[in-house]
Design a protein that fits this description.
Blueprint (H helix, E strand, L loop, with lengths): L1 H10 L2 H14 L9 H17 L2 H10 L13 E5 L5 H7 L9 H12 L4 E5 L12 H11 L7 E4 L5 H12 L7 E6 L3 H10 L5 E5 L14 H24 L10
Parallel strand pairs: 1-2, 1-4, 2-3, 4-5
Length: 260
């Protein structure tokens, strides 16, 4: 099912669908249905124009990011669990240096909260979600990154076998064995927080959401014309909404759209 879920994600990516549509229309030139090619190109052009002007950040990104507000953290917490997705183990291995992406706030927040709560337990959960490079894990890269920033990684448990958000929750719970009454803080991207909270609740772990890595300001409005940006936002947002539906269907989430 892991392989199928990854393949489904590839096939439902708007960028991939655009590429497949162009290939399909090109191939019509060599078939008896080539007379439909011009109509297909006109239709595809109109679709792209519509996609370019729709404010996807407002429609599909912001509802996810606003679902869980940033909480006021208590004076004491039992532990902090941070989900992977901020570092690239493939590029890091190839270049022999840490390669981070736009979600690097996940890791820097772990360091910040670790210093704020010196007695708290800490875990970074990140294996590999790749179909082709399962041997390259994110957790060792996170350890190196934190070491280079001067943080004491002896305090951190590094979980390196998870391949998706559900496994983040299940494997982290097994390692940390949270007890009733403990206060655990979950750190991940704001966009990813609803699915993450659903997965942790389904795993029987009550955590406090602490969203980071926002893509929206919360004040976006009106139409624009930016096809590249629109396709990127649509790709990211659609991935999360489909992920929410898939997790609910598999019983990996406690609800279709988890909330506070």
């Amino acid at each position: 099912m892991f392989v199928l879920s990854k393949l489904f994600g590839m096939l439902t990516s708007p960028l991939n669908l655009l590429a497949l549509s162009l290939v399909g229309l090109s191939l019509l030139s060599f078939t008896p249905w080539r007379r439909f090619q011009r109509r297909g190109l006109v239709l595809l052009t109109l679709v792209l124009l519509v996609v370019a002007i729709i404010p996807w950040s407002v429609l599909i990104i912001r509802p996810l990011e606003d679902r869980f507000p940033v909480p006021t953290l208590p004076d004491r917490v039992s532990g902090v669990v941070v989900l992977g997705g901020a570092l690239d183990p493939v590029v890091s291995a190839a270049r022999d240096q840490v390669s981070a992406n736009a979600a690097v706030e996940r890791v820097t927040t772990l360091i910040s909260l670790g210093r704020r709560y010196p007695q708290a337990k800490l875990i970074f959960s990140g294996g590999s979600g790749s179909l082709t490079t399962q041997e390259l894990k994110e957790a060792p890269v996170a350890r190196r990154f934190m070491d280079e920033l001067g943080f004491d990684t002896r305090r951190v448990m590094f979980e390196d076998q998870s391949r998706n958000t559900r496994e983040n929750a299940v494997l982290s719970k097994q390692l940390m064995d949270p007890q009733p009454g403990e206060t655990w803080v979950l750190v991940t991207s704001a966009l990813h927080m609803p699915r993450s909270m659903g997965a942790f609740r389904a795993a029987g772990w009550s955590v406090m959401p602490y969203p980071v890595d926002y893509l929206t300001s919360g004040q976006e409005s009106g139409l624009a014309f930016n096809l590249g940006g629109a396709l990127s936002r649509l790709d990211v947002g659609l991935h999360e909404w489909l992920g929410l539906a898939y997790y609910r269907w598999r019983g990996w989430s406690d609800s279709l759209f988890p909330g506070p």
